[in-house]
Each structure stands twice: as structure tokens, then as C-alpha cells.
Design a protein that fits this description.
There is one protein chain. By secondary structure, the chain is an alpha/beta fold. It has one domain: TIM Barrel (Alpha-Beta Barrel). The chain has a five-stranded parallel beta sheet, sandwiched between helices. It has a two-stranded parallel sheet with strand order 1-4. The chain has a two-stranded antiparallel ribbon with strand order 2-3. Helix 7 crosses helix 9. The longest helix is centred in the middle third of the chain and has 25 residues. The structure holds zinc ion (ZN). The site of zinc ion has 5 residues, from loops.
């Protein structure tokens, strides 16, 4: 069974030769391959080479094509600084007034900002190993993209003012979230056409550490649900799946996550995996939730294996991919990452990589 087959079967709850291990390792893959972050998020060839090299080292079931956050915002003209081997820095908002929202022009994911870097990197990796391993692309959720374009403070201010009835920004908010939704549908579709097995909506700013459950339901959920509804037939056409990733402990809205229609729901380490499997109850596949800043970063290989084994036991019988709660920290010892991957291989029945 190839990694790609194993991942697709596990997502749909079909039997596999062993559990899937899919750490979220974009920048970690780049650095472990000895590459520069900026070289990779600016150039698809470098990104593909680095992630392929990391895959040769670890042999994980999913190659993650991901590094920074602003590849979509830049398409709308957001000024971003790219320093050598550092994460990009967002310098300013492009939306500063209500009127500015309506000046945003539609963008083309195959042409604008750095969206093409990731689309082309997916295609390059797919050309080489697409039949062997699943490929996970990237995608910024409508709420996070609005934060990048308006500035997070302005977005949250508009949200609070609208929600409390102080001042009504509902139309602007709807407009900017719709732009984000439409862009992400096109971007995810382009990644599927290039060979992605998993496309994603990452809406980290929609964490309950930032907004209330009621705000999530009113201002974020409708656009996320629209995304997954629209992607469902497109994913089916390409034998692919759509993933929802929101950081933090969001247990209160796990029921809502199940209703988004996402095929895969990422659970961060702040939440309990037992709650996630109980509430989501096989309506979606779950990925998570090893702590990227716990045993993986600071512990021993034995501690990593113990944590992985506990996750696998907790999720046994459910649609599940062993993963990290959020991105693997750069600096995680290679032997600890190998221990995470060994924990699933030890459960295999003599087959598969
Ligand atoms: Zn996260």
C-alpha cells in the first residue's frame, strides 16, 4: 500500500496496512533538508526539492507544501518583506477604510502573489512521487485573509462593533470574506489540478482564543461551510480531500466543525483528542494532536513514541491520521520525528513504506 493509498483509505475509514503518520512539517521539512526558508517560499523548484529531500529522510505518508502565511494576501497588494531565510513580514494593511474593501480586485491564483509558487511546487512533487505519497497543499481561510488585508486589529474591531450593534460593518465583512472564499476555491482547485491529495482551509485567527463561539458561528462558519460544500465535488473528481485547520482549544465548536463538511479536521494539542473523536464521531477524519512544543521538541524518542501511541489508542476505531496539533517546530530533533513515524510502522503488518 503506498502512502497515498493509505492516506485516502484512512480518511474514508477503510482498512489500511498500518495507521497513517502525517506530521505538519512545512518549514521543518525545508530546514531539515538544509534549505533556506525564503528560497523555498519564493521558488517552486527549491520548495519541491526541499520537501522531496525531507521525504527521503522521513518517509512520512504526507508531503506538506507549506511555509509562510502571506502568499494570498500579497496577490491583493499587501506589502510584505522577504528577508533571507526568515519568514515574510507583513508591513501594512491594504484595507484601511470601509471604502477600501470595495476596491479589492479579484486575483488569479495561477498568476498573482506567491500563490503560483505553491501550485507549481505541488505539481513538481506530484510529477516525481505523486503515485507514492499524499501531497498536502496550503490555503488561507477567509477570516485569516481578511485579517491580513485589513490588519487584525481593524478586522476584530469591525467584528466587535458589528456584533455589539455599535457600528454596522456587516456588509464590508461579508464582502471581504466572500472575496477570500472565492479566491480560496480557485486556489484549492488549481492545487488539485496540479496533483494535491489534500487541500486546506487554515483559519488560525478564528481560534476561540481570539473570537467567541457565537462569533465563529456568525462570521466564520458560513464561509468555511461554503468552501467545503463547493470543494466536495471537485475533490471527488481528483480523489482528494479537504482539511480544516484552526489552532487552539476549540472544543466548544467541534460540533460546528463537523457540520462544515470538511473531510479532515485538524485538532490542536490544546484540545483533548478523546473529545474530538467523541463529538465529531466519524463525520470527518481527525488529524492530530501531538504537541509540537512538547516531547517532539524537548523530549526523548521514547516519550515521543508514548505520546503517539496514546493518540493512536484514543482514536482507534475512528477515521484518524496521526499528526501534530500544529506545525512541527523547526529544531525538533530528527530522531524524535523518526520516533513519531516509527510508532505507526511498528503497528504495520509487514507492508508498506
Ligand atoms: Zn495551527
Amino acid at each position: 500500500m503506498t502512502g497515498r493509498e493509505r492516506v485516502l483509505r484512512a480518511i474514508h475509514g477503510l482498512p489500511t496496512d498500518r495507521p497513517v503518520a502525517a506530521p505538519y512539517m512545512g518549514n521543518y521539512g525545508i530546514r531539515t533538508a538544509g534549505s533556506s526558508l525564503s528560497a523555498c517560499y519564493l521558488d517552486s523548484t527549491s520548495m519541491a526539492q526541499a520537501q522531496l529531500k525531507a521525504w527521503e529522510i522521513f518517509g512520512q505518508d504526507v508531503i506538506v507544501v507549506q511555509s509562510d502565511n502571506y502568499y494570498m494576501a500579497e496577490a491583493f497588494g499587501a506589502p510584505v518583506e522577504h528577508a533571507p531565510d526568515s519568514m515574510p513580514v507583513l508591513l501594512d494593511a491594504v484595507v484601511k477604510t470601509s471604502e477600501d474593501v470595495y476596491k479589492l480586485e479579484p486575483v488569479d491564483p495561477r498568476r498573482d502573489g506567491r500563490m503560483p509558487v505553491y501550485i507549481e511546487a505541488v505539481a513538481r512533487i506530484c510529477d516525481k512521487v505523486g503515485d507514492q505519497v499524499a501531497i498536502r497543499g496550503c490555503g488561507t481561510g477567509p477570516f485569516v485573509l481578511a485579517g491580513h488585508l485589513c490588519g487584525i486589529e481593524r478586522l476584530l474591531l469591525w467584528l466587535v462593533e458589528t456584533d455589539s450593534g455599535m457600528e454596522d460593518h456587516a456588509k464590508e465583512l461579508h464582502h471581504i470574506f466572500t472575496i477570500g472564499l472565492e479566491t480560496l476555491v480557485q486556489y484549492a482547485t488549481a492545487q488539485l489540478e496540479s496533483g494535491a491529495t489534500i487541500i486546506q482551509l487554515a483559519d488560525s485567527l478564528a481560534s476561540l482564543a481570539v473570537i467567541s463561539p457565537a462569533m465563529y458561528r456568525s462570521y466564520v462558519f458560513p464561509y468555511e461551510q461554503a468552501f467545503f460544500t463547493r470543494m466536495k465535488p471537485i475533490c471527488a473528481k481528483y480523489q482528494a480531500a479537504a482539511l480544516l485547520h484552526i489552532c487552539g482549544d476549540n472544543t466548544t465548536v467541534f460540533e460546528d466543525y463537523a457540520l462544515t463538511g470538511a473531510d479532515i479536521i485538524a485538532i490542536d494539542h490544546g484540545a483533548r483528542l478523546s473529545d474530538a473523536v467523541r463529538i465529531i464521531a466519524n463525520r470527518a477524519c481527525i488529524i492530530g494532536n501531538m504537541n509540537p512544543s512538547g516531547a517532539l521538541l524537548y523530549g526523548t524518542p521514547e516519550e515521543v513514541q508514548n505520546e503517539a501511541t496514546l493518540c493512536l489508542k484514543t482514536a482507534a476505531g475512528f477515521r484518524y491520521l496521526l499528526g501534530t496539533g500544529c506545525e512541527v517546530a523547526v529544531g525538533t530533533p530528527v530522531e524524535n520525528m523518526r520516533a513519531m513515524l516509527a510508532s505507526v510502522r511498528n503497528l504495520g503488518q509487514g507492508g508498506g513504506r
